[in-house]
Amino acid sequence: MGVGYSRGAMQPYVPPKPGYRSGAGRLGGVLARGGRSILNLLPRQAYTVQMGQARIGRRRVFLVNAPETVRSVLVTDAQHYPKHHYIEDILRPLIGVSLFNANGADWAQQRRLVDQAFAAANLRRAFPLMRAAVDDLLDRLARRDAREPWPADVAMAHVTADIIFRTILSTPLAPEPAQQVHDAFRSYQENAQRVMALSALHLPTWLHRWRCRQMGARIRASFAPLVHARYAAVARGEADLPQDMLAALIAARDPDTGARLSAAQAVDQVATLFLAGHETSASTLAWALYLLACQPELQQQVRDEVAAAWGDRAPEFGDTRHLALTQDVFKETLRLYPPIAFYLREAAEAGRCLRDKPVAQGDMVAVSPWIVHRHEGLWAQPDVFDPCRFRTEAGLASARGAYLPFGMGPRACPGAAFATQESLLLLAQIVRRFRIETVAGAVPVPVARLTLRALGGVRLCLRPVRSPSGVPQA
Ligand code: HEM
């Protein structure tokens, strides 16, 4: 359990949440003009109803909140609600048609192949790579001027991209290309949102598609040459090649058909693993650090927990399991700021119902962890940041039905354990060395596009923590 903790005199803290939409305004039109995110367009009722309906252009959209209906869409009837074709469409310039956006038999085969790579990147093997990347981050942080605001979201994107780079490709990722990927993905997300909204309104999308292709190419250029070089080395029969996730992808064979990945297909899978595997964790970590900065007492309790569990030594594999409070902070951050805020599905055929409402073929069905996690009928004080809730009967009951930051069913995240291990390690190591403080006036505003990011970034202050002897902690 780690050290005990309590809310004590802490006031209920409600972290940033966009206001509700009041006026009419067409959903698709507002999104198509860009700038605003879907979160600004949600009316208050979205957080109270069991299921809602809206229209984007000519398309009907079901918003599903009730836990049993969410379950039917994502788990029991999952084959009737494949990922929406918009997802394939807007991600294609970035990840081709690979694990995240494929459907049907194609997806099933890809999952069988990529699962073999996940088995190779097991947590024990990944841990030293994570620790090395985190140590490099700590070195960078120790060298920076503590009086300058720290762009936490950029730093988290760099370290998580570095971790996944080391895990997949056995090579670190330098700060400059990491920053370029971060910026390119922001631009990609803005343009992808417009493509989606304009498509729904049957308006021209070519300009934003062109920008997506440009940004997609820029991101892929950071790893595609490495994948091709490795394929060539394997073909030449080179010895002593790294035994990493890419090696497992190259070696993977479909147990049913014997199929394997070509170099081009492997680039697409690496793109999925790279993006799904760092952007999400980076978003969660940046929010978690901001929430800890806003709650100095809680932050100190996390620091005490790490000190009690690890003392002054370097963390070893398995050590993150002893950080109960840090785990609850991570879980509560994922509840309030799920990095993938909407799961979009499409009814594959007519003849099915959702809560007695007939669904037509092609209708969009949206499950939003952002909304479900903040639903007034499913959680007590849903907008309050309270890591303690996961230790109460009521909180655990809510979590059983209405907590899904990693998705559910066959398309659930295969990287959840990886993300949890790296995030706990990062939070513990940062809090151990630094006191995290807010920057006056810098309040991050959540914006949901493909992933949840903070408009204007997450800017914080870091001050080195001194041990009782006055020496900065090792
Ligand atoms: C906090 C971190 C993360 C969160 C919250 C997260 C969340 C999710 C969610 C919600 C989905 C399913 C989306 C849907 O059903 O529409 C998903 C899929 C996926 N995630 Fe993660 N993820 C995280 C980290 C990772 C990591 C570290 C990896 C890889 C190492 C990863 C790889 C994937 C892949 C490959 C898929 C597609 C699976 C499929 O469709 O078969 N994710 N993730």
Write a structural description.
The protein is 50% helix and 10% strand. The chain is an alpha+beta fold. It has one domain (27-464): Cytochrome p450, CATH 1.10.630. It has a 4-stranded mixed beta sheet. A 3-stranded antiparallel beta sheet has the order 3-11-8. The chain has a two-stranded antiparallel ribbon with strand order 5-6. A hairpin with a 3-residue loop joins strand 9 (445-448) and strand 10 (452-455). Protoporphyrin IX containing FE is lined by residues 99-100, 111, 272-273, 276-277, 280-281, 284, 339-340, 343, 405-407, 411, 413-415, 418-419. Protoporphyrin IX containing FE binds next to helix 11 and helix 16.
The order of strands across the largest sheet is: 1-2-7-4
> How far from one another are the termini?
24 Å
Q: What small molecules does this complex bind?
A: protoporphyrin IX containing FE
Name the beta content range: 5-15%
Structural class of the secondary structure composition?
alpha+beta
Q: What sequence of helices (H) and strands (E) makes up the elements?
A: HEEHHHHEHHHHHHHHEEEEHHHEEEE
Helix proportion: 40-55%
Let me know the CATH homologous superfamily.
Cytochrome P450
Broad CATH class: Mainly Alpha
How many separate structural domains? 1
Mean pLDDT: 92
Q: Helix count, per DSSP?
A: 16
How does CATH name the architecture? Orthogonal Bundle
Using the alpha-carbon principal axes, give the shape. globular
Oligomer class: single chain
Q: Report the major sheet.
A: 4 strands, mixed
Q: Gyration radius, to the nearest Å?
A: 22 Å
Number of strands: 11
For this structure, the CATH topology is Cytochrome p450
The low-pLDDT segments are 468-474
